[in-house]
Specification:
Length: 168
Amino acid sequence: MYKTLAEITPAEQFALMKTLADAFDPTIPVGNHPINLQMALEIDVQGTIRKSADEEYTPTISIPITLALALVLEKAGFQRENAKALLISAMTEALTLDPKEKANEHIAQRLKDIETAMTHVQQITSALPKQSRKGKTFPKLHGIVSDRLEDPDGNFNPMADMVPIGKD
C-alpha cells in the first residue's frame, strides 16, 4: 500500500531518510551548486527502528576551553602566574604525548596516587551542570529505491531497475 508524505509516521520518515541516505554516496566538488530537481521514486523499506530514551550527560567535550581557562586564571587571583605556568606545562605535555600511547598509562607513571587524582577529576566533572540529549536511534533497515516507474513500453513497473540498499 502506498502512502503520501503526509501519511507517514515519524519512524517511517526516519526510515525514508536513512534509506535515501544509504542509497546515495555523492562526492560533491567544492563550489556552489544550484539544484532544481523533480523526481519520482519508488521506495520499499522493511525493518525495525529502536529508539532509546533521552538521557542526561555531562558535556565535557563541549566545554569552551578558552573561556574556561580565562575564568580559572581570573579566579586564581594572586596565584594567577602559578596557575598559568601549571596550565602551560600540563597542556604542552598533553600536546606532545604520542597519540598511540595511552593517556592513563602516562598519567600513572607520573602520579604516585592515580586513584586520588582521578577522584578529583571525577568530582570536577560530576559538579558540572547536566545537559539532555536525544536518545540514540538504532535502525535495522533494508530498502529498495527505484527511479524508473515505467518499463520501456510505458507501462507502470515499480520493480524495474530496483537498487537494493541498507545495512544489517
